[in-house]
Amino acid sequence: MVGLLAGASGMALLRFLLLSAIAATAWSAIVTLEYYFAGYAILGAPTWLQIILIVVGVIATIVSFRLLQPTVRARAKGPANAADAPD
């Protein structure tokens, strides 16, 4: 969406690329540090809490895959059959 707005507003390509690169670098650094410190905090947690967090993470991953499965199947069928896929 930002690319469309930048192009429609007449932003120079080099400026857009520079700002996009800075934003992507900042975003990836923040996410990386977030996971690093979360992992560090989990190591200091009691064993029972570590087990609960692992179980919750595995369940969340399974639920996410199950929720995304209809979308992936609809896209695999192609745009003509996408309307027939269940939500």
Description:
The protein is flat and about 55 Å long. With 87 residues, it is mainly alpha-helical. 79% of the residues lie in helices and 0% in strands. The protein folds into 2 domains: 1-38, no CATH class; 45-87, no CATH class.
The largest pleated sheet is described as: none
- Cα-to-Cα separation, first versus last residue: 24 Å
Tell me roughly what share of residues is in helical segments. Answer: over 70%
Rg for CA atoms: 20 Å
Summarize the helix and strand pattern as letters: HHH
Alpha-beta content class: mainly alpha
Number of domains in the coordinates? 2
Q: Looking at the chains present, what oligomeric state does this protein adopt?
A: single chain
Low-pLDDT windows of residues = none
Approximate strand percentage: under 5%
Average pLDDT value?
A: 86
How many DSSP H or I helices?
A: 3
Q: Give the beta-strand count.
A: 0
Shape verdict: flat
